[in-house]
Amino acid sequence: MTMGADKDSLTILGKLRRARAEAGRSQKEVAALIGVSERTVHSWESAHTAPDLEQLCRWARVLDLCAVLSPVEPAKAGGQAT
What we know:
434 Repressor (Amino-terminal Domain), Cro/C1-type_HTH, DNA binding
């Protein structure tokens, strides 16, 4: 695995791209479900542009990955969530 691929796996966009591929969905199919062009999805996955928050949420829902975007509660001193 290359350094870039490892770094990419840590990003939300990288996780969404990988999930799309693992689900066997094409960029064209996902684009239609999100309401954008195939070129737009390609641009996001190539990190040339980024989706706005609404588009990002739709993308995650299409791939059943809402947990990727779930908020994390800050920890209190002592390690417990607030």
